[in-house]
Amino acid sequence: QGKLVESGGDSVQPGGFLRLSCDFSGYTYSKYCMGWSRQAPGKEREGVAAIDIHGSIEYADSVKGRFTISKDNAKTTLYLQMNSLNPEDTAMYYCAAAPAKVCTPEAPQLGYSGQGTLVIVSS
Length: 123
What we know:
Structural class: mainly beta
Low-confidence stretches: none
Mean pLDDT: 94
Distance between the termini: 40 Å
Number of strands: 11
Number of helices: 0
Strand content: 35-45%
Radius of gyration: 13 Å
Oligomer: single chain
């Protein structure tokens, strides 16, 4: 299988924004439930957002209205636009994909994941 390669993590101030990207070339991930999850220091990994093969999207309550997931199959890239960031969003963010029948934010991380990209929100 191909790899999932995340990029775009950075250190930003509260209220700022970032766009994460995940290159999923070399794999038929476009046929999977894909999404983003995150793990903050000392906490369990949590699903953030997911998009299924039909383009249906779900978000975790903690990011609704602030984060937007999108996918460009032609560019084999998954995105996560993150706005209005706050310190609680500080975490390692992972791109993931799984052949889930029900595509919830928690589903993708049960399959394949990338190495992660670090987001730090601090003043």
